[in-house]
Structure formats: structure tokens, C-alpha cells
Write a structure and sequence with these properties.
Belongs to the ETF beta-subunit/FixA family. It is a single chain. This protein is α/β, with parallel strands linked by helices. It has one domain: HUPs (Rossmann fold). It is 27% helix and 27% strand. The chain is built from six helices and eleven strands. A nine-stranded mixed beta sheet has the order 9-8-7-10-6-1-4-5-11, with helices on both faces. α2 packs across α5. The longest helix has 15 residues. It starts with a strand and ends in a 5-residue tail after the last helix. It binds adenosine monophosphate. The site of adenosine monophosphate has 23 residues, from α1, β4, α3, β6 and α4. Adenosine monophosphate binds next to α1, β4, α3, β6 and α4.
């Protein structure tokens, strides 16, 4: 079985986000970019499945500008066998377009599993996995915190984190899985593997070659900083707190 993993290049989680002065988006010039943390978890899960002998190949895919090749090099250094870069230039590619691109790649590559992060930490959409599962008419296990494959019966048992606890579902393969934070601890790429990954070939395709039209179905009107939080106050007693909650905040 082949596993396809979608990895997105995003502003590094440790960077303090700055809004561009013209409020058209978030500043990305001279900003450290990395693989989306949930995508690292998705890749780690695919590598563990391959290492357990249940899959033969892990293919990493990224959609976006030329620099996505760096994210794919990281994926190769972590252990992916192959990488595909869908070069979308500088266009902002919304989740539905990414989902259509992934559908086209899935139809070409025929993986048994498509693993994605549950969300990208730049737009926090949490949509792509669900959309591609819908487009492919595949079963989906979102927010996975545990994945067990039964290759013989072509099934996957997925524990998923829902509001009230953990829900366990059984999926028919092929399926789409999106990863939650507690699924695993991704590995670091070692220096020798980083060096080896430099010489690996990354296949490049365009959305047009996959017959996907990049339609901007989301218009970003303005991006602004959240309002600054006001300083807190220290109260002298519980009675004062209750009084404030009742009469000022009006939550009691
Ligand atoms: P989102 O729906 O935008 O929150 O993204 C959820 C997941 O979809 C991400 O964690 C990735 O696995 C995948 N994804 C979204 N956008 C891209 C992209 N441009 N390239 C590769 N994977 C993506």
C-alpha cells in the first residue's frame, strides 16, 4: 500500500505574527517558514505505518510557491520516499482548490491512505481533509489520536478526539485521515538524512496539468491585529470577585 501525505508550508509556530502595514495579510518576507506541525504528525504516522510493514511507500505532496520545495526536502529528510510539488506560484490556494489538487494526485497515484493535518496553523481552516474525502467519496477519520490498520480486511480503526472524549470509528480503506496533536511525536530529521534529501528529485507539476482551476472562492477583505488585552486587576476578596462577576461582567 502507498500512503500520500499533504504537507503545507506555513509561518513557523514560534514566530510572532505581524500584519502587513497595508492590512492585506500576514507578513511573510524574511519570516521563518516551516512544515505545518499537524502535517509533521501526519508524515510521522505514515512513516510509522511503513516501518511496521503495512505500507510500502510514503509520498509527500505540497501545494504552493517554489519555496514549498524546502518543506518537501524536510519531508524527504524525515523519511518520505518521494515528493511532489504542485507549483501554484504566488497564488493563495484555498482549501477547496487544494482538495481538488489532492483528488487529482490521488487518482493518479492510487494510495490506500491519504493523511493530512487536522488544520493548517496559518489559516486554521480545518477543511481540506473533509473536502477531499467528500470529493473522492472516501471514508474519513478526522482529528485522529490513534490509528490501527487492518490491511487484510482493508479497514482502519481510528480514535478521534471529540468534545466529550474519544470516539472510535472503523473505516473502509482507502480512506482520508486527519491528525490531531496527540497522535504521535514527530521525529527530527538527522543531519545525514538532510544531506541525502538534498540530492533527491522533487517532481513538479502545475494545477493546470492536473486540470484544476485555482478559483479564489474566498476574498480576504482585511487582516487586522486582535485588540490588545486590557490589564487585569487584583481583587482583595472572593466577595469582591462575586460582586464584579454579578454586576460588572454580568455572568452570574
Ligand atoms: P486547512 O484545511 O487549510 O486547515 O489544512 C488542513 C490540512 O490540509 C493541512 O494540515 C495539510 O495537511 C493539508 N493542506 C492544506 N493546504 C495545503 C497545501 N497548500 N499544501 C499541502 N497540504 C495542504
Amino acid at each position: 500500500m502507498k500512503i500520500m501525505v499533504a504537507v503545507k508550508r506555513v509561518v513557523d509556530y514560534a514566530v510572532k505574527i505581524r500584519v502587513k502595514p497595508d492590512k492585506t495579510g500576514v507578513e511573510t518576507t524574511n519570516v521563518k517558514m516551516s512544515m505545518n506541525p499537524f502535517c509533521e504528525i501526519a508524515l510521522e504516522e505514515a512513516l510509522r505505518i511503513r516501518e511496521s510493514g503495512l505500507a510500502k511507500e510514503v509520498v509527500a505532496v505540497s501545494v504552493g510557491p517554489t519555496q514549498c520545495a524546502d518543506t518537501l526536502r524536510t519531508a524527504l529528510a524525515m523519511g518520505a520516499d518521494r515528493a511532489v510539488h504542485v507549483d501554484a506560484g504566488t497564488a493563495n490556494v484555498p482549501p477547496l482548490s487544494v482538495a481538488k489538487i489532492l483528488r487529482a494526485l490521488v487518482q493518479a497515484e492510487q494510495p490506500g491512505l491519504l493523511i493530512l493535518g487536522k488544520q493548517a496553523i496559518d489559516d486554521d481552516c480545518n477543511q481540506t481533509g473533509q473536502m477531499v474525502a467528500g470529493l473522492l467519496k472516501w471514508s474519513q477519520g478526522t482529528f485522529a489520536s490513534k490509528v490501527v490498520l487492518d490491511k487484510e480486511n482493508q479497514k482502519a480503526t481510528v480514535e478521534r478526539e471529540v468534545d466529550g472524549g474519544i470516539e472510535t470509528i472503523c473505516l473502509d480503506l482507502p480512506a482520508v485521515i486527519t491528525t490531531d496533536l496527540r497522535l504521535n511525536q514527530p521525529r527530527y530529521a538527522t543531519l545525514p538524512n538532510i544531506m541525502k534529501a538534498k540530492s533527491k528529485v522533487i517532481k513538479k507539476v502545475t494545477p493546470e496539468e492536473l486540470n484544476v482551476e485555482l478559483r479564489p472562492d474566498i476574498e480576504i477583505v482585511q487582516v487586522t491585529e486582535p485588540p490588545k488585552r486590557k490589564a487585569g486587576v487584583i481583587l482583595s476578596s472572593v466577595d469582591e470577585l462575586i460582586d464584579k462577576l454579578k454586576n460588572e461582567a454580568r455572568v452570574l
